[in-house]
TrEMBL record:
Compartments, as annotated in UniProt: Cell outer membrane
Keywords for the protein's UniProt record, in alphabetical order: Cell outer membrane, Coiled coil, Ion transport, Membrane, Porin, Signal, Transmembrane, Transmembrane beta strand, Transport
CDD domains, alphabetized: OmpA_C-like
PANTHER family: LIPOPROTEIN YIAD-RELATED, STATOR ELEMENT OF FLAGELLAR MOTOR COMPLEX
Membrane association type: Multi-pass membrane protein
Protein origin, superkingdom: Bacteria
InterPro entries hit by this protein: Bact_OuterMem_StrucFunc, OMP/PagP_B-barrel, OMP_bac, OmpA-like, OmpA-like_sf, TSP_type-3_rpt
Primary location: membrane
Keyword Transcription: no
Protein name in UniProt: OmpA family protein
Amino acid sequence: MKLNLLKCLPVALAGLFIGSAAQAQTSTSTMEPFRTWSIGVNAGVISPISPLGGQNDYSNWESSFGYGLYIKKQITPYFSLRLDGNRGSAKGDNNEPYNSGGVNVSPFKSFSTDLNYSGSLNAVVNMFNWSMFKQQNNAQLYGSVGGGFANYTTTTVSSGGATVENETVNRMIIPVGLGAKFRLADAINLDLGWTISFVDGDTFDGYARGGNDKYNYAYAGLEFALGKGKQLAFYSPTAATYDEALAAKNIANGLKSDLDAQKAENARLRSEMGDLLKDSDGDGVADKLDKCPGTPAGTVVDGSGCPLKVPAPQVTEKVIVTEADRKVVADAIKNLEFDLGKATIRSRSYPTLNRVAALLMEKNFSLKLAGHTDNTGSNELNMRLSKDRAESVKAYLVSQGANASRIEATGYGEDQPIATNKTAAGRQQNRRVEFTLY
């Protein structure tokens, strides 16, 4: 009875996606980054028969060259979807009798089928890795099943020598395969495989006698993993779970030991705490640190327990700012320039700023820097820019020797204009840093 692949394909595809959902239960969301996309190229031999047996229309089948490529998405360590494409040819003849002594079935002398292309979507299941308790393996076995289409043209030669090229046809196929993969490097694998493609038709070899044809493809190739990280296909969740459990056990044992040691240490500290905190004269300084024991009650003491000495009143020298001093500051304000929209001071401003730094060091003045902007841009941006520019001027003056503690830098943004913001000239006046000596 002829196998109806058209009816079997939906069942195979349903199994493919059910397997995908089941395998997806192994989550990789909390794991490190993995390589999940890969591409592969391969080459091998195509033969118009399967070692699994079945009806053969020709007594002698030949192996011909074939090649292919694929792109694969690894969804979990055990499951992936692979899009395959293949080309090649298949040949057979009746030049030799059947090994069983039977009569040749096909009336043709020979045939040659050009597999113009085949494309299929396959579910690939990694059956097991070599080591269950090694997180990154180097070898694995896998199986695959899927569905797709093949486009081929068959040419037959009759017993009389007449050659007939049949019409090019498209037929549905179900490829089933096994393979072994070996990791050669972080992103390169050796891929050895064998696929049997069951054809939904009986004319792949040019002769129809009521049964579906099939062809066999044995290949070797290279797979290149894309992206960064380890290959998800060679990752073992079992090994990762074992390592995590072992680490958790070690941490728990370490925590118990630490807890016992901490309890003993706490007991020792409590026994010593009473002596350390004893304060006989009640001045707030423990006896072991009190350099002046027996201080009368109510006496204000320093950190060593001795009476606090009241400092003599200090005379503050009056600061006098001259016109010459104001001119130095005015010149600095006039020549102060920044890069557009930044807090970087342009080098042409350095000479006048150097004179301000020298003035601060010479007369020990204090200086207030107030940054302002126009109303262009957001209020938050202007506030930050005005503050940054004032701080930039302060940093430069400090780098020239000025006392940082005597310089105050503040930003007011666009809140204190000295001219209208409706004209370019007014906005230019509002973009400024004010210097105040005191």
